[in-house]
Amino acid sequence: MIAKKRTKPLKLMKLEVLNERIVQNHSKMQFIESDFAKYNAGFKGEMSLDFYMKDLNEDDYHIFHDLRLPQSSNEQFYFQIDTLIVHSQFCVLIEVKNLIGNLYFDHQFDQIIRTRDGVDETFSDPINQVALQKVQFAKWLRLNKFPEIPLHTLVAITNPKSYIRISPKYGKKSQKIIRGNTLVNKIYGYVSTQQENVLLKKDLKRLTKYLIREDTPHNPDILKNYNIKREEILTGVFCPKCNTPPMIRIKRTWVCLNCSEESNDAHEKALQDYALLFNPQVKNRDIRDFLNIESRSSVKKLLHSMNLKPIGSRKAAIYTLPFPK
Fold this sequence. Notes:
The chain is an alpha/beta fold. Helices cover 35% and strands 22% of the residues.
C-alpha cells in the first residue's frame, strides 16, 4: 500500500512561483529557470516510476515517497530517500534519476558522464548517494529500536530515451542500476532470496507511524537562497487565463485588464504564492499590500470566504494561509 503519497516538493512549488513573480530581466532569472527545470524533471521522473509500483501486492508492501528524516535525535541534519519500499523481510531504498542523453557510469571517478547534443556534463554517482542513505537509514532504525533488517539499494533511470553504458570495472554495483519497468521483477527477486520475516505486523505498524511522524519536508527560504529582495517580487493577482498581472477587483469579481477574463477566486492562488515566497502567517495589512486592495473589510471578507479564521483581535490578528495541495 502507499503509506506516504508523493506530492510536489515545497522547494519545487517555491521555484515555480518565484519564476512567475520575479521582475523581468532580473540577474538571477537564468539560475532560477535552470533550477526549476532541473527539479521539475526530477519530480516527473519520480512520478513516472510510481506507475510501475502499482503491480506490487498492496498487502505485502508499504511504500513511502519523498522521505526526509533526521540523522540524529537533535534534528539538526537530515537525509532524504526518494522512495522506500518496506517488506516484512527487507527494505529497498530507491534513488530516482530522470536524465536524458548518453549516460556513462564511470567507476574511476565515481560519476555519471552525460553526453547530450555533443556536450559532456558530470553528475555524482547515485550508487554512492543511495549507499550513504542506506547507512543513515540503518542508523535511524537502530536509534528507534527496530529489528535489524536487510536493506537493498537501487538507482532507477526513468527516462526511456536515455542510453546507458557502464564501465566494465563497475563490478557488482552495476546490478543496482535499473530501468523503471524492471523494478517489480527486481523486488520479487529479493523476496525469493530471503527466508524469514524480520518485521512483524506490530513492527510494520510502528515503523509506518515513526516514518510519517519524523518526516520533515524541506522548506527553504527561497528568496534568501537567491538573495532576492521583497520589492523584486511582482505583487497582485495573476489572471488564471493569460497569467498576466494585475487583475483589478470590481464588485467582488477579479477582472483581467489584458484579456477581460473574470474570476471570483483568483485571489486564492495569489495568497498561496504569498505563503510560499514569504510566510504563511500574515496580517490583514500584508494581504492588502500584496493584492493591491485598499479596503481592510474587503480583505477580511476574502479571507473569511476561504474559511481562514484569525488568531488575535483587530489589527493584531494573524491568519495562516494554505500551501497549494
